[in-house]
Amino acid sequence: MSTGPTHAMSGLLAWSAVTALASTHPIGQLSPQSWAVGAVLATGAALLPDLDHPGSTISRTFGALSSGLSAGINMLSGFVYRTTRTKKDSNREGGHRGLTHTLVFALFAAVFTTAVVQNSQKWALPVLMFVFAGLAVRGIMNDWCPKQDALLITVVSAGITWAMIAWTSQTNASAAACGIAVGVGCFAHYIGDAITEQGCPILWPVPIMGKTWFPVAPPKIMRMKTGGVVEMAIVGPVVTILSVWLGLAALQATGALPFLNWVDLLPL
């Protein structure tokens, strides 16, 4: 599940599911504004792990800036892989599906986001929203947006950021909620990659069967080809429908959609 649109929608689905189902936890009792901020962050963060692939959707999002950063992350990821692999790990040189595809990276991204937002919501949160909105927009629009049109992505991302800031007047989003949203988005990416043919080394550096880069994956019969018919015709549409449904349920729970109060979107 490594195409941009499917990853992006899986991030939104994961955030919607977590907030809709955790009704007794603070993360399930967010204000509509905070929920929306988290949705943008989670949707964008679902593409973040592919920063280690120079040819990925995320590497093209902001033109030369994201492309250069992606090349650097790819080199770092490749170095970490070569340094920590065991004799049973494959002898590959590339950095894709390496460091950024581990729970260690997801935790780092979550903690970093929390720290940045805690430091200054006045400027840090809008900047984060702009960056992750760019990733979300690029991911969702990847199939019909010109692949090199960084200007269009930038303008649309700026519009989303401005609209959300104007809507919330002064965002009071919880720093912890923002961090959780980014972590949830990254984890959604890992699950998507885990069900593809290559698997995903989520548990690095924990050694499994002698491998520190063990590719976590279900049995082969349950895996799918990246960008194949199963993903594009079945998984992608199902993920999109579920993300919209659970998103509406989560927003309904925050009181943002009073006109849907007569509909039991999440019967529990």
UniProtKB/TrEMBL annotation:
Taxonomic superkingdom: Bacteria
Annotated InterPro entries: YdjM-like (IPR007404)
Gene Ontology MF, one: hydrolase activity
Pfam families linked to this entry: YdjM (PF04307)
Name of the featured protein: Metal-dependent hydrolase
Keywords noted in UniProt: Hydrolase, Membrane, Signal, Transmembrane, Transmembrane helix
Membrane-spanning ranges: 58-77, 98-117, 123-141, 150-167, 173-192, 229-251
PANTHER family: INNER MEMBRANE PROTEIN YBCI-RELATED
Signal sequence segment: 1-22
